[in-house]
């Protein structure tokens, strides 16, 4: 019987062991998509306790605790930090076979060195031990501990990027770069919320926005500003993709309707989103940025919790919108102008894995290796089965060797072991093929392959 979470965790063969320990484990981290607060990096935040760094904002854990019958007050409410930690600890044994069980113990092991299993009986001991070790682990020390070389946060076009500038001007050696996330500039479903945002965008760009062309001018000015700040990637969270035909006259009319506080028709909403995203993607190509599309999340399903907690409260799920035809048309429109930038598409529904894996092959340009990427297992799929299926489908229909690998997509500074988790799964997948005679025992080449997927491909792809 193998011991739980030992040095050979998830590695089932001697080849897998060699690939991980001799190759993958040695690679640094480039985390090209996360939701970490740049202010906490700039200020080198010292967290008060493990609840503050580990549970606040982690809606994966919130969902699990709700499923375990924990009262919301002890999850996101006014309960003290120790109480919140205790109810999480008591929930952990019930998460067995959920990736949270693995992640929890990987994150206690690194960076805290804690190997005791977390449950209700060990909660007090682990809470105090982790808090003591946390005193010597401000944010910068955590990033350095995990050999993070660069990371990209997620930032709204209206953000002033003050903290990114502060980081850049400091002597901190890890690159912390913004990513351009213009979702709110296209969220026209609610005119009141949208107009409030447009006013904020106008102030940040110092541009009056009363026409659609002025909206584009403001977004382009912010796109240029982000570029000067080191940004080289945009990010887009979409329910599905649209590729509607449009004219500037139609867009001006729609924008006038919104600014007057009136609701657009569903068809006009789709057209507005299609057009605005198209223009942003043209700028991405002109600036030689990469662009990421996170597609297929059905968000904010529980009105009661949405009203209480706001978005990102753990009340989202997979969606099942049709996506193939519109995705192909959207990319084709850009490709016909030879202005399709490096593109990563992330899938949130396993039923569509083969669709995404075949879609990327349509738009490779024969010049840039792996230009169009099927992104790593995302959100509900960033667990062992989801990662294995994504890599298996990509292997069958594309080039796994050109894959840019894992990203945390996390709000927590303790999520870096997800890269280790991914690398172990990758090495085990390849190791099993070697042991079963499906791949040659060419360790030199396979070692290079796992190192490329772990770090080198992303480094080359993003050119940070």
CATH H-level superfamily title of the largest domain: Metal-dependent hydrolases
Q: How far from one another are the termini?
A: 44 Å
Number of domains: 2
Main beta-sheet strand count, sense and barrel state: 4 strands, parallel
CATH structural architecture of the largest domain = Alpha-Beta Barrel
CATH level 1 class label of the largest domain = Alpha Beta
Tell me what portion of residues adopts beta-strand conformation. 5-15%
What is the strand and helix layout of this fold?
Elements: H1 14-22, E1 29-31, H2 38-42, H3 50-54, H4 59-67, H5 81-91, H6 99-109, H7 123-134, H8 139-145, E2 148-152, H9 162-169, E3 175-177, H10 191-205, H11 212-228, E4 233-238, H12 248-259, H13 266-287, E5 290-295, E6 297-298, H14 303-309, E7 317-318, H15 324-336, E8 342-347, H16 353-362, E9 372-374, H17 384-397, H18 417-435, H19 443-462
Parallel strand pairs: 1-2, 2-3, 4-5, 5-8, 8-9
Antiparallel strand pairs: 6-7
Question: How would you describe the overall organization of this protein?
Answer:
This protein is globular. The strands form three sheets. It has a four-stranded parallel beta sheet with strand order 4-5-8-9, with helices on one face. The mean pLDDT is 97. The chain has helices at residues 14-22, 38-42, 50-54, 59-67, 81-91, 99-109, 123-134, 139-145, 162-169, 191-205, 212-228, 248-259, 266-287, 303-309, 324-336, 353-362, 384-397, 417-435, 443-462, and strands at residues 29-31, 148-152, 175-177, 233-238, 290-295, 297-298, 317-318, 342-347, 372-374. The longest helix is centred in the middle third of the chain and has 22 residues, at 266-287. Helix 9 (162-169) links the parallel strand 2 (148-152) and strand 3. Helix 10 (191-205) packs across helix 11 (212-228), helix 16 packs parallel to helix 17 and helix 17 crosses helix 18 (417-435). It is of the alpha/beta class and 464 residues long. The protein is 49% helix and 8% strand. The two termini are 44 Å apart. It folds into two domains: 14-45 and 148-462, Alpha-Beta Barrel (TIM Barrel); 46-137, uronate isomerase, domain 2, chain A.
């Amino acid at each position: 019987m193998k011991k739980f979470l030992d040095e050979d965790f998830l590695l089932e063969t001697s080849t897998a062991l060699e690939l991980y320990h001799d190759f993958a484990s040695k690679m640094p981290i480039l985390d090209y998509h996360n939701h970490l607060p740049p202010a906490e990096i700039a200020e080198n935040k010292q967290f008060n306790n493990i609840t503050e760094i580990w549970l606040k904002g982690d809606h994966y854990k919130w969902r699990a605790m709700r499923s375990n019958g924990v009262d919301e007050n002890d999850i996101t409410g006014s309960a003290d930090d120790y109480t919140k930690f205790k109810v999480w600890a008591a929930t952990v044994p019930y998460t067995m076979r959920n990736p949270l069980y693995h992640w929890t113990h990987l994150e206690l092991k690194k960076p805290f060195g804690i190997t005791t299993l977390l449950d209700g009986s060990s909660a007090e001991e682990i809470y105090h031990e982790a808090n003591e070790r946390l005193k010597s682990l401000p944010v910068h020390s955590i990033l350095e501990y995990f050999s993070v070389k660069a990371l990209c946060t997620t930032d709204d076009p209206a953000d002033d990027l003050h903290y990114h500038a502060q980081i850049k001007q400091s002597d901190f050696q890890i690159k912390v770069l913004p990513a351009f996330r213009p979702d709110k500039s296209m969220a026209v479903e609610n005119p009141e919320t949208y107009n409030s945002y447009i006013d904020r965008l106008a102030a940040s760009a110092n541009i009056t926005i009363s026409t659609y062309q002025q909206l584009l001018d403001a977004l382009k000015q912010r796109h240029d500003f982000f570029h000067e700040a080191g940004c080289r990637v945009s990010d887009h969270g979409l329910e599905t993709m649209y590729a509607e035909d449009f004219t500037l006259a139609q867009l001006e009319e729609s924008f006038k309707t919104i600014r007057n506080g009136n609701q657009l028709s569903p068809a006009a909403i789709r057209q507005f989103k299609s057009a605005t995203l198209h223009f942003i993607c043209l700028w991405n190509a002109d600036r030689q940025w990469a662009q990421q599309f996170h597609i297929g999340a059905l968000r904010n399903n529980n009105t009661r919790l949405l009203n209480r907690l706001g978005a990102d409260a753990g009340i989202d799920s997979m969606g099942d919108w049709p996506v193939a035809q519109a995705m192909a048309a959207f990319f084709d429109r850009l490709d016909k102008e030879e202005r399709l930038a490096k593109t990563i598409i992330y899938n949130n529904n396993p039923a569509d894995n083969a669709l995404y894996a075949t879609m990327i092959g349509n738009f490779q340009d024969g010049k840039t290796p792996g230009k169009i990427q099927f992104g790593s297992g995302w959100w509900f799929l960033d667990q062992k089965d989801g990662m294995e299926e994504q890599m298996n489908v990509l292997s069958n229909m594309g080039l796994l060797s050109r894959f840019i690998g894992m990203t945390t997509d996390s709000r927590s500074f303790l999520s870096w072991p997800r890269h280790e988790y991914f690398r172990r799964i990758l090495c085990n997948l390849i190791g099993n093929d070697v042991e079963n005679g499906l791949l040659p025992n060419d360790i030199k080449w396979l070692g290079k392959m796992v190192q490329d997927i772990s770090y080198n491909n992303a480094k080359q792809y993003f050119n940070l």
